[in-house]
Each structure stands twice: as C-alpha cells, then as structure tokens.
UniProtKB/TrEMBL annotation:
Location in the cell: Cytoplasm
UniProt-annotated binding residues for a divalent metal cation: 15-16, 107
Record's keyword annotation contains Metal-binding: yes
Reactions accelerated catalytically: Endonucleolytic cleavage to 5'-phosphomonoester
Cofactor or coenzyme needed: Mn(2+); Mg(2+)
GO molecular function: RNA-DNA hybrid ribonuclease activity
Entry protein name: Ribonuclease HII
EC number(s) stated in the UniProt entry for this protein: 3.1.26.4
UniProt domain RNase H type-2: residue ranges: 9-198
Annotated gene: rnhB
Gene3D superfamilies: Ribonuclease H-like superfamily/Ribonuclease H (3.30.420.10)
Pfam family, one: RNase_HII
C-alpha cells in the first residue's frame, strides 16, 4: 500500500524513466500531490499496464498542486553520463514546479542537493510513496509519447514497442542500420552483456 506522505505536506516526488535505454532522452517527472490524495490504481509505473499509466496521467496532472516533466537528450547524456543526466532531469523537473516543495522524495539512492530543500532518497520509492509513483507515471508516459513520435522517423528500430530499451530486436536493428541522431553514443553505461559489439 502506497503512503501518501513522508513527514511534510507539500512534498514533491521525483523519478526518472529511460535511464537504461540506448536511444532517446532520460525523462524526469516531479509532482506535488494534494494532502489526502488517493488513487487505488496508482503504483510504481513498471507494475502498471500501459493503459493504466495512460489513464492515470490526466488524473495526476489535473489533481496535482503542481507537476513538471523534463527530457534530457542524448547529446547531454553523452557529455555528462547517464547518472548525472538522470539527476539533472530531476532537478530541471523540480525547476518547473510552480509551488516550492517543503521536501523532495527521490526514487533510488543517488541525488544531488537541490537548492536548500531537504530531500530523502528512497530505494524502490515508486512502490512506497504516492508522490514518487505519480512522478514515475508522468516520466514514463511523457517519455513513451516522445518515443512514439520519433518512431515515425525511424520505424526500423521499433521504438513504439521497445521505447529505446536494449531489446534483442533493437540491438539487431543497430547492427543492421547503424545508429541515429537519437542514439546515445555512450553505450558504456550498459552492463557488459548488453554492449553492442560495434
């Protein structure tokens, strides 16, 4: 069961999507939910079907006190590495909030201080706190929408299905067609068994 708050009202949750991808941006969501917000479907976005995520997105965006989503694109990922790019995306998403949070709940174990706001890293936080789960749904749905758009340009990589993740089909397409402007050049972020052997 997801908890609504950690210690404070006006808490922001933040999370990213697309960290382990070969193509496309890393996308972060930040959201402040109203006190007493409840939703029986909301959960870690990875545990939800695509349909449930898509249905949740307008509810979260309508009910939020404030929300923001930010993409950090391939060239920047390649310059600063994927971990730094993930944190940068979260910081930029927090920049986009119209209400200053009293505290930030971050999914995962890595973050850099944001302004002077207290923050807490929560491992598997998107399965523990509503605000992080909501941020994960926003990050995932906005990123998926972007990947669908660029799929039209390069359908041979099937991004509409794999969303840029290193599936066997995606890796085979890279071997066959090479990489696009949307591919990250810094594949070193991947475990050895996922390297492309290019």
């Amino acid at each position: 069961m997801l908890k609504s708050h950690f210690k404070f009202s006006n808490e922001a949750g933040t999370d990213e999507a697309g960290r382990g991808c070969l193509a496309g941006p890393v996308t972060a969501g930040a959201i402040i939910l109203p006190e007493g917000f409840k939703n029986s479907i909301l959960n870690d976005s990875k545990q939800l079907s695509e349909l449930k995520r898509e249905n949740l997105r307008p509810i979260l965006e309508k009910d939020a006190i404030s929300f923001s989503v930010c993409h950090v694109f391939e060239d920047e990922i390649d310059k600063i590495n994927i971990l730094n790019a993930s944190i940068l995306a979260m910081h930029r998403a927090l920049d986009g909030l119209t209400s200053i949070p009293s505290m930030i709940l971050v999914d995962g174990n890595r973050f850099k201080p944001y302004q002077d706001i207290l923050y807490e890293c929560v491992i598997k936080g998107d399965g523990k706190f509503m605000s992080i789960a909501a941020a994960s749904v926003l990050a995932k749905t906005h990123r998926d929408a972007y990947m669908l758009k660029i799929h039209e340009e390069y359908p041979m990589y099937n991004w509409k299905k794999n969303k840029g993740y290193p599936t066997k089909e995606h890796r085979e397409a890279i071997k066959k067609y090479g990489i696009t402007k949307y591919h990250r050049k810094s594949f070193r972020q991947l475990p050895e068994q996922l390297t492309l052997g290019l």
